[in-house]
Amino acid sequence: MEHNVKNTSKKSAFSIFLFISAIVVAILGVALLVDNIYLYNTSFAQALTQGYPAATVRKALMTSQLIPGIFQPIALYGGIALLLLAVGKIGDKVSKCLTVLTKKEICDDVTHEYCEDQADQDVTNVENIETTNHEEISDETQKI
Question: According to DSSP H, which parts of 9-51 are helical?
């Protein structure tokens, strides 16, 4: 008995959803990073036009605006994107393992059913042989 099982590896819908979500989160993180750098440059230029010294403005804005503005999108959005990718990969591997197990169970069930059918036939044949032998023996005893 052959089963029509496709050999192609197909990703689950859940894994695809997680991969797409990771891409969207990564794009949002990059957009926020660019926005924070643009905001720093705008604030720096505005402070310079008001007459503040460049070194003082750079020192003040660097620690309060630029460094948190860079690390937040990288850490938060990058971490979430990597987490989504990892969960997507794990889900994909689990899906493949479950597919392999399901195929193995189907093969085991087919083999098990074949073994049961074969055992039933063997029992029937043995019963027929025993019945036939018993009748032949009783016929032979009656002739004697």
Answer: 13-49
